[in-house]
Amino acid sequence: MVLLADRQGVPLTSCVLKGNPKQHTVFNPVNHDATASIAELQTTFENILPLIFNRVAPDWDNNWELVIQSFHNNYVALKNSLGYPEAVRKELTLYELFRLLAYAYLKDFYTQTASANAAHFHNYPPNNATLPQFTNNLANNYNRIIQLDFRQIFTDHPNQGQRIFPDNFSANYLQYFKDLIQCFVQHNSNAVADNSSPSYVFNLLTSKIYDREELHRKGKIMSDAELSNLLAVLCIDSHTAKVLDPGCGDGALLDAAYDQINLLASSANQLKHTIKFYHK
Question: Which of 16, 78, 134, 252 could form a disulfide with 224 if both were Cys (CB 3.0 to 4.6 A apart)?
Answer without folding.
Answer: 252
